[in-house]
Structures are given as C-alpha cells and as structure tokens.
Amino acid sequence: MKILVNNKETELTGGNTIAHLARQLELPAQGVAIALHNRMVPRTEWENTPLKENDSLVIIKAACGG
Prior knowledge:
The model has no long low-confidence stretch (mean pLDDT 95). The chain has one helix spanning 18-24, and strands at residues 2-5, 8-11, 32-36, 39-41, 56-61. The protein has a 5-stranded mixed β-sheet, with no helix packed on it. The longest helix has 7 residues, at 18-24. By secondary structure, the chain is mainly beta. Strand 3 and strand 4 (39-41) form a beta hairpin. Pfam families: ThiS. This is Sulfur carrier protein ThiS. It comes from Phocaeicola faecium.
C-alpha cells in the first residue's frame, strides 16, 4: 500500500496501522509525533489507527540543541 510520509511516497508493508509504519521506519520509542491528515494521533492510538491507500502522514522528531 502506498502512503505519503512527509510528502514522500512510501510503501507500507507488513501491516496497515501507524504502529506498523513506525516499526517499518525504525522510529525511536520516544520523541516522535505523528499526524494523520493534519490531526495528531496519540501514541496510545497508533496500534488501533488503520491506514489506507494514499493517506498522508507527517512525522515530527524532537531535536535538542540551540
């Protein structure tokens, strides 16, 4: 299934939830936020939030520094 992640087409394999996507992209366990169609999805809902073909997600990683 093809989805958009930060405006880049990405092939989602091995599942169809935000949690599957996070594992596929090897995202860190903390410091990451994901929005589906410009709506933030709490980490507690990642396992139960299904993705569909052409869904648009934005992944934001926390950064330290100044």
